[in-house]
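Is this the right way to post structure tokens for a design question? Let me know if I should format differently. Anyway, here goes:
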């Protein structure tokens, strides 16, 4: 097998980066929790125009029960669906839950966010509201991305329901129902696009994408596999060979990222801190750490002394690899980002949480691996520029 097969094929193995038509993309929908809450309220309400009756509600309760391992299952039945409910009890300040389902026997209080994160809401408050009338109470996190490391302060006990899993179950339920599709073509199209948005992520592979794959097989010297018989055995052998090489390359990639992280922490705690303190005054850099986990773990936090208090967030961050890509391409928390056509993820990225900005650095990951000179001023100059402009 060609040594560069994985590198040669990766760009064409996925679906096109050009999204097919999707109403969510056209309306810029699905980028804010309120928008998605509107969609799920519509689906959960048995009297709505989707004409599903209680089919999605039953799916939702079933998935909730699967997430409640070892607990008494919630009953099916009639649930009142409310949105933007103040769940604070006992005269406490307002705490707004995105959705509340309530039946004669049970109450489900739902926090909807793009990650499985209570993001400042009170889990104990949500739970107290759900059981206030002696009913069976459940707190649930509805989210796009599940990340257990973000579930703290009680939220680790919440049931987690990713959008994708619910969309998958719903589409499975109606995809073979020809009568429903004929009677409700618009609702069915909406459900299919909901699935595409949160499960498939983009449109179907077209002829051009398939042709690109064949050309890549030619370029990597693997096209001879098409003459092997039987074809199903040849396809499996190709997949197995590719999987072995991909697994090795994936592991090597993670090792490389960790080495870069270690070197970047050392440079930030040493030369970069000294440079910034020399420019802005001794004690300007309050601390450097890299405590984040999950997709955020390739992030170096730099706390600096400023007049403003960015709500306890680190004043500056250095991001690279997966963390830089996530901040720039996927995380709606960042509103001032680098255009995707200009983003180069072989480089470091500077972020400033207080102003929700992401910038691309001239310093590359390879530069970090090679070892930045103690006097290298590039990160210092870029950070000072970022602070000065904001």
């Amino acid at each position: 097998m060609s040594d560069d097969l994985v590198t040669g094929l990766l760009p064409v193995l996925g679906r096109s980066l050009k999204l097919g038509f999707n109403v969510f993309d056209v309306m810029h929908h699905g980028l804010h929790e309120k928008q998605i809450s509107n969609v799920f309220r519509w689906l959960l309400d048995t009297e709505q125009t989707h004409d599903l009756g209680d089919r999605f509600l039953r799916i939702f309760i079933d998935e909730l029960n699967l997430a409640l391992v070892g607990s008494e299952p919630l009953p099916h039945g009639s649930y009142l669906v409310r949105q933007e409910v103040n769940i604070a009890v006992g005269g406490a300040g307002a705490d707004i839950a995105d959705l509340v389902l309530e039946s004669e026997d049970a109450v489900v209080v739902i926090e909807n966010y793009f990650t499985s994160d209570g993001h400042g809401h009170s889990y104990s408050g949500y739970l107290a509201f759900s059981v206030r009338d002696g009913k069976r109470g459940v707190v649930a996190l509805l989210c796009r991305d599940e990340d257990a490391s973000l579930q703290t302060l009680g939220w680790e006990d919440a049931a987690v329901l990713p959008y994708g899993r619910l969309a998958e179950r719903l589409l499975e339920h109606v995809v073979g129902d020809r009568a429903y599709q004929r009677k409700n073509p618009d609702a069915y199209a909406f459900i299919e696009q909901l699935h595409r948005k949160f499960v498939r992520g983009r449109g179907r592979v077209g002829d051009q994408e398939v042709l690109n794959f064949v050309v890549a097989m030619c370029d990597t010297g693997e096209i001879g596999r098409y003459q092997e018989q039987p074809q199903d055995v040849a396809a499996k052998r190709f997949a197995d060979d590719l999987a072995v090489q991909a697994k090795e390359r994936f592991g090597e990639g993670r090792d490389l990222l960790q080495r870069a992280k270690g070197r970047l922490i050392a440079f930030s705690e040493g030369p970069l801190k000294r440079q910034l303190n020399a420019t802005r005054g001794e004690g300007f850099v309050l601390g450097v750490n890299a405590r984040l986990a999950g997709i955020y773990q390739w992030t170096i936090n730099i706390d600096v002394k400023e007049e403003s208090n960015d709500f306890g967030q680190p004043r500056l961050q250095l991001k690279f690899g997966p963390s830089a890509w996530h901040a720039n391409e996927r995380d709606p928390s960042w509103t001032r980002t680098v255009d995707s056509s200009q983003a180069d993820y072989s480089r470091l990225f500077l972020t400033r949480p207080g102003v929700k900005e992401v910038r691309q650095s001239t310093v590359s990951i390879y530069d970090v691996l090679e070892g930045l000179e103690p006097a290298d001023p590039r990160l210092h100059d870029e950070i000072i520029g970022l602070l000065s402009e904001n």
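Format looks fine. Someone answered above. Worth noting: The CA atoms of residues 168 and 290 lie 36 Å apart. The chain is about 45% helix and 15% strand.
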